[in-house]
Every structure is written in structure tokens, then in C-alpha cells.
User: Fold these one by one.
Assistant:
Number 1:
Amino acid sequence: LANPNMNLRDLLILVADPSSYMSALIHSMLRGFGSNKVLMVRNSVGVYHAMTAQRIDLLICDARLPLHGGLQLTRVLRSKTDDEHRTLPILIMTADSRESTIKQARDAGANMVIAKPLSPARLYDRLAWIAFNPRKFVDTTSYFGPDRRFKIEGYPGGIGRRKGDNVTEAAQGSAPALAQDDIDSLFTAVRSGQE
Amino acid sequence: MMKKASKRNAVAQSKAGAQTQLAKELEVRTFALETRFQKMARRDGGIPRDKALEQAQIILEEA
């Protein structure tokens, strides 16, 4: 896909953040991306109620979500063997973007982590990564979640690249542009000029 | 002499325990999975990135 378009229409997205301002901000961004079904909750109890009532397609969750944090919520969701939300894509938002925090989110089973403050571009790209770069799920005695061994090598399918990238093709040399005699004569001319 | 033997036993038991734990951890099952989000997000009729960002910016400014 050279330039994939993301279709969020009719997907039920659950935004879990204690801040009503942040939730409203994310809601606005998602509406701009074409989403028409967004639920907002303030804590993990709200997440539980929302998931009991309906099937959620994507969870965008703050790492410090009350009562026990977004990472603990992720662990619990991934551990429920009989729950349809076990494989739910989870995007963790955090203001603490230290490597250790990112690793903790990864090991909890989050699909992606996004640093706060959010921008529309960052949010769109994370969602596109989840949508267009599906990863295998891994099930071990100590971990259940997306395969943690992955490497981001640029944007998926070219999303977010600068317009000029990959447009110009470098010419491939099939033969010398000048014959060796011509090259020699050029050097000879320079030398004779110096003399 | 006795002390050395018991120490050796303890080390051997610890090694065996670690190996059992490792064997359990190596019981890995991987499977490909396409979630509803991935399936639906790739449908036709999506919004191009540039337009999506532009629309989001407009809604944010309005708000």
C-alpha cells in the first residue's frame, strides 16, 4: 500500500483517561479521522462497565488510569482467557516516556505507546501502525499479547513520509560515462596547461 | 564433607528448578490474528492521512 487510508467509521473506540479535557481532545481528533463511535470513561470501573455492555474495537488508555493504572488494566484484560476483549488492540498514553515505562507497557501486552501531549499526527500514525502492521499474538505461561519482537522501520506503507521521499530514482550506471582515453586526455590537457 | 555435599545438592536442585521454569517459558504458542479494528480500518472509503489531520485540526480549533 503506497498511501493507505484508514477507515474508522462504525468502530467502537473507548477512551479511558481521568482528564475530561484530554478525553475531549482525543475525541475531537478521532472525529476528524472519521470516527463516529467514541466512548469516554474516567477509570477502570468505567472500562469494565463499557466492555460488559458492548464489544469494544480499540482501547486508548492512560497509563495512570485510576484505580490501578492502565498497565495493570492491560495485564488483566490479556489474562482473561474467556473474554472476547483479550486480543483487543490497546494504545497506552503516557506522559512518562522513559524507556523503562515503554518496556513495562510492552510487557503488559500493549500494542503501542503514545507519549503525551498528543498531536493529531502522532495519534493517527499510532492507529495506522496498529491497523496496517498486524503482529502475531504470543501465548506463554508468563505473557499473552502482541509479539514484542518487532522493529519499526519507517512508517507502514509509506504513511507519514515526506512527499519527496522515494520519488527520485537514482540512475544506475551501466557503463562509464567517458571512455578511458577521454579521461586520460582531460588529465593531459590540465597537465599541459600547468606546464 | 557433609556441608559440601549438601551445598552441591542445593545447587543441583536450583539448576533443575531453573531448567523446569525455562522449559515452561519455552512453551510458546504464536498465532496470527486479525482483529475487528484491523479488518474494519482497512475497508474502502477511508480518509487519507492529510485530510484526516486537516479535519482533526479544524475540529480542535472549533472546540
Note: Chain A has a mean pLDDT of 86.
Number 2:
Amino acid sequence: MPDVPELNSVIHGKLRLALLSLLAGVEEAEFTWLREKTGSTDGNLGAQLLKLEEAGYLVVEKKFVLRKPVTLYRITELGRRELAAYVRALKQLLGSALHETGA
Amino acid sequence: MTDQETRKDLEDRFHLIEDMVQQGRRTTQYWGWCFLLWGVAYLAATAWGSATGKPAIAWAVTMIAASVLTSLIAKMKASGKRTTIVGRSVMIFWITIGGALFLICYSTSLTGHAEVHSFAAAIETLIGTAHLASGWLLRWKTQIFNGLLWWGAAVASCLVQADRVGWIFIGMTLAGFVAFGVYLMVLESRAVSRGKLVVHA
């Protein structure tokens, strides 16, 4: 029986997974862009981003552009590595699921 | 953990990752309106210039108006930004090519040293270069083909009689800017209707 890989619980939440994947494809992104792409509410989005930040998977930068506050998010190297490991584990699990169903 | 997780759920997560990474990388198709606007501006300037016989004024007014409109619409459409290296490279390329076009157009029209064949070929080469480079950066065959068409038009402009050069430019503006812009806008509206999703925690 092959080892079943563990999925990282911080990344596993769908919104957190979506956020980390979005940030993996860009250099940095504004809060409003992440909200638009995920269709999430401000409160939920803020809470999930905070969890990712606390895990060290992303960094936040707050600044003023033309006197307007702008919050920018950037994925860290750790976040990128963990997302890659999550994708590998997911692929392995999908492979196992295919074997179990005999597909 | 796989007891409760179905294969479908795992697949959904996999597709979610792919979709989201792709969302961040989309760049040019959201600028369809910009290609359309500049195509219409080129046509308006050409028509105005030939109708009044004062192309320098027609082009100056139209290009400045198009620049102002571009920045206004871009600000209105931006509901939040993200930055990618590819996106920034493409934007910088178009801005520098735009600057080069502006310099060529005004230095030649103000000094009166423009020769119609080489003038049109230079403009078409620059526009083709911008399309080709951004298509190459984005690995997008449609835009690479558009760039090659402009380069072909530049060669054709050197081969035809002077009175045909303007028609080549108008034809290429219609195909390479107006039609290309409309095509991008159709792609964008399809992507928006497909990509309307809400991700729950």
C-alpha cells in the first residue's frame, strides 16, 4: 500500500488555496483584485489572508498611492514551495484515487 | 483525510489552482478596448488630415485625445491591480514604441522631410515589432501573426505606388487594430462569463 500524502491544512481551505494560486501567478496584487477574482467578502478575504500571512506564505505591504491606501500582497518563497508541495501531494492523491477506482 | 474527500473534490481543487494561476497571467485580452480605440483614432486622424490638408494638426489633436482617453478608461476599468513581469514588459514595450511613433511622426511632419514610402514602412515596422514582441512574450500566436502582417505591410508599402501606401495603412489599421481589438473584447467577455466564480473558505 503506497503512503498517502498529507495535504497542508493551511493551504487546503478553498479560498486560501485560490489566494495562494492567484499570488503564485503574479509579482504582487492588490486586495481589491484578489476580492474581484475570488468573489469573496472583505471580512472573509481579510481573515484568510491573515492566516496565510501568519503561516509565512505571503507578505503584506501597505502604502499610499495618490493619497489612497493600497494593500499589496506578495507570495513568499516558503509559500511558493508549500504550494508546489501541495500540488505534488494532490497529484499523488489523485493517482491513488484512480488506482482505487480501477480507472 | 481521504475518507471524506472524493476524487471530484480533489480534481476541483486541482482545477481551481490552474484557473487562479491563469487569472493572474491574463494580460493582453483585457486591453481589447485600447487597440480598438487607437485603431479608430488612427482612422479618424487619417480622414481628418486628408480632408483638411493639415495632417500635423489632425494627428496631434487625435493622438493627444486618444492618450487622455486611454488613461481615463484604464483608470475606470481598474478595480484593483496585480503586477506580473510579463505584463510589465509588454506595457513598457508598447509605451516605448508609442513614444518612438510620436517622435517619428512629429519630427518628419514638422520638418517636412517625410517620404511617403519610407515613412509608412517605418510606422508599420514599429507597430509590427510591438505586436510581435508582446505576442512572443505572451506565447500568443494570434498576436505574433498580427505583428508579421504589419511587417508584411511595411514591405508592401515600399513596393507599391505612393497613392496606394495610405490604403495599405488604413487596411492594416482596420485589421491589426480595430478587428484585433474587437476580437480581444469578445475573448474578454467570454472569459468573464466563464470565470464568474465565488470561492468559499
Note: Chain B has seven helices and one strand.
